[in-house]
């Protein structure tokens, strides 16, 4: 009769079984509790014993069963992240920064992207919590995310990554100071003799765009120079290109401050096609410091946002047990390049 305990089928099943903490304990010759201490509080275990357990873990290929652990501790190590799925540089880079920061802090992330128009009593927050999310970060760069943000905040406290703070119970906001970034642009231009500046405005449904307009208008008043804000436009390069082709070349301003680098890119193309020299005839400034902006023609003066720090700040705030921790307002930094000249 075939030895059933040593049959090929049994050996295959045994080989496929995930190693457990009991297996590790048996291999290391220690108790189950000792293995648990090595995994959760290794500093209290003698170095020699810890080395035996770590060697057994490596030999067996043991990994923690986080789902089982969460049933015992009510902690899952999972953060929920809600976005609108925007491919634009700011929101996409912010989302990536949150994921990196969460991983470095020992968390994994569950991401959900709301469909256009989805909001109100959105199921996004409930689904994330049901899947084990301990807390939720919402990347809310525009008005379209507000309804979903407030809906999720009814279920659990959230951190919003947004240029404007949201006045709603259960919501704390992490921001980059968009207005200060715009003020830095105006000050930089004014110090170099520019006396008339046009701000090529982004879409007003976006909080970043509003913050940049507010900073621009305040700085223009403080500097006592001429300023103009255009009608709202899309974030794409085509909006800057169209604006550049519609410009009256007989009455160019000293500088044009585009609300983001993509708009500035389209503007540079249009001006070049029309024989306008940048920066000799007009200076151009962008915002965001996207990858490649240093290689525009000419290299673009712009404002850099600290997206990595933004991700860290959001993760720290949402995972902190201290609800009195202040929500930070992070600085934006001017990056001078050769698209601006001294006048």
From TrEMBL:
Keywords: DNA-binding, Transcription, Transcription regulation. It comes from Brachybacterium nesterenkovii. InterPro entries: HTH_LacI (IPR000843), LacI/GalR-like_sensor (IPR046335), Lambda_DNA-bd_dom_sf (IPR010982), Peripla_BP_I (IPR028082). This is Transcriptional regulator, LacI family. Residues 19-73 form the HTH lacI-type domain. GO terms for molecular function: DNA-binding transcription factor activity; transcription cis-regulatory region binding. The keyword DNA-binding applies.
């Amino acid at each position: 009769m075939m030895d059933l305990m040593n049959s090929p089928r049994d050996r295959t099943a045994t080989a496929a079984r995930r190693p457990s903490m009991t297996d590790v304990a048996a291999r290391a010759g220690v108790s189950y509790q000792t293995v648990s201490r090595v995994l959760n509080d290794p500093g209290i275990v003698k170095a020699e014993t810890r080395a035996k357990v770590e060697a057994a873990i490596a030999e067996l290929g043991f990994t923690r069963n986080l789902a089982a652990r969460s049933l015992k501790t009510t902690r899952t190590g999972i953060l929920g992240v809600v976005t609108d799925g925007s491919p634009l540089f700011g929101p996409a880079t912010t989302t990536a920064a949150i994921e990196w920061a969460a991983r470095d802090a020992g968390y994994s992330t569950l991401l959900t992207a709301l469909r256009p128009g989805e909001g109100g009593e959105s199921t996004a927050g409930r689904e994330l919590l049901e899947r084990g999310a301990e807390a939720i970060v919402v990347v809310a760069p525009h008005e379209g995310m507000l309804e979903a943000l407030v809906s999720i905040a009814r279920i659990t406290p959230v951190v919003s990554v947004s240029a404007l703070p949201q006045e709603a119970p259960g919501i704390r906001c992490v921001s980059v100071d968009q207005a200060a970034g715009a003020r830095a642009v105006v000050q930089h231009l004014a110090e170099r003799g520019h006396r008339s500046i046009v701000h090529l405005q982004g879409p007003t449904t976006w909080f970043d765009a509003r913050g940049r307009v507010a900073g621009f208008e305040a700085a223009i008043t403080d500097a006592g120079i001429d300023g103009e804000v255009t009608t709202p436009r899309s974030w794409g390069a085509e909006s800057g290109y169209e604006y550049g082709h519609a410009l009256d070349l007989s009455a160019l301003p000293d500088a044009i401050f585009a609300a983001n680098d993509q708009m500035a890119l389209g503007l540079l193309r249009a001006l070049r096609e029309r024989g306008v020299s940048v920066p000799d005839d007009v200076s151009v400034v962008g915002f965001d410091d996207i990858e490649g902006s240093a290689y525009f023609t000419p290299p673009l003066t712009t404002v850099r946002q600290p997206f990595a720090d933004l991700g860290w700040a959001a993760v720290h705030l949402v995972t902190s047990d201290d609800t009195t921790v202040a929500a930070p307002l992070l600085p934006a930094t001017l990056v001078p390049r050769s698209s601006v000249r001294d006048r």
